[in-house]
Fold this protein.
Amino acid sequence: MRVTAIVPAAGSGSRMGGAEPKQYLRLAGVPLLSRTLLALTASGCVDHLVLVVPAGQEPRCRAEILVPYGIAAERVVPGGADRQASVGAGLAAAPADSDLILVHDGARPFVTGALIRQALAAAAEAGGAVVAVPVTDTIKRADETGTIRETPARAGLWAAQTPQAFQARLFREAHQRAQADGFRSTDDSALVERLGCPIRLVPGSRDNLKVTTVLDLILAEALLRAAAGGG
Amino acid sequence: MRVTAIVPAAGSGSRMGGAEPKQYLRLAGVPLLSRTLLALTASGCVDHLVLVVPAGQEPRCRAEILVPYGIAAERVVPGGADRQASVGAGLAAAPADSDLILVHDGARPFVTGALIRQALAAAAEAGGAVVAVPVTDTIKRADETGTIRETPARAGLWAAQTPQAFQARLFREAHQRAQADGFRSTDDSALVERLGCPIRLVPGSRDNLKVTTVLDLILAEALLRAAAGGG
């Protein structure tokens, strides 16, 4: 099975509040994005790597994210106007011989090899797989007036993370159909679900956090210290 | 309007992993629980304070949580087997002249006076109010086999926090009915919702976090430093 990993990292990172594009944010000296890519390559499961960055940032990303850490990404491609467009751009650049597509957020550096393997195995079997954690908050559904209409049972509710993995043919079809139908989603799996394909949940970990705010960065630094045994 | 705040702090705190009961955990030298109670009293909105702690811990809580910080809690009562029982114990100890009941987690020290006032005002008007934040994760509903059945639209989904506020008569009735029906929930509002009473959402803040894990504690310390202007 040939696996292509698509890493969308084309967002503006406006929630970080800094002047520097979030692609170059460092976590204990190493760019977050480099850490994420290193975690993917270290898994030993990824045959091809496609990195999606803001248009115009390709040379700088190669020079600062890839080269200093010896990361071999076949393609560094410009992203689109939203996540779906960026993943679609990555998919267009994926080698034709890919059997499985793994999509993983550039801002989730703590992904483990075990999670990647489980997502790929589940996708190979079922068609698609989404790493997710059980929802711990009580969820409420409100109407437009701000009045609670429903408290959905928490059992069976999961918060999606990445990696998400899909059979390549299915994922290409899902993107084409969404494009044709004008369906937009920030959720990669939703495109495949609407084809009626069964998607498996793979239990993830809260440590696999997405670093999108300054507080997340502080938390990520703490996780890194804990992983290094420094508490 | 006479306001009684019930603060459930009777949990075991097993997720902290320490030997010390979580009630005595300190955040920058001050017990988390003391910080939460001080935030409530500082709001100027609370007429009576009822603290619910694990049975047998009442004297130690008075000595370590209340007295050193000059916090005047009318009642310190033993909790029950679950959250509903603990809040029920607090409610039984609430003065009969209470018009509004405010329930607030002992482990949410960053609650603001503005949030408390908004929750009380909404409850006075509508019957009940829940502070909540919009859900940012993609939520999936899965069946028992771990297959995704639904991706509920994220618009209109909120994650409940505390404070939650209720008209006292309504909240007492809700607890009595739940008791009579054998209905159990970790969610205070759910007891009132099932009476058919409209409950308002009050937009909260991510900073109003519940400190239940060691990572939350690290994050709380970072929030405290940020609030102090230390970055």
In short: The first strand of chain A starts at residue 3 and ends at 8. Chain A has a mean pLDDT of 93. Helices of chain A lie at 32-42, 58-66, 83-93, 113-126, 168-181, 188-193, 214-227. The radius of gyration of chain A is 18 Å.
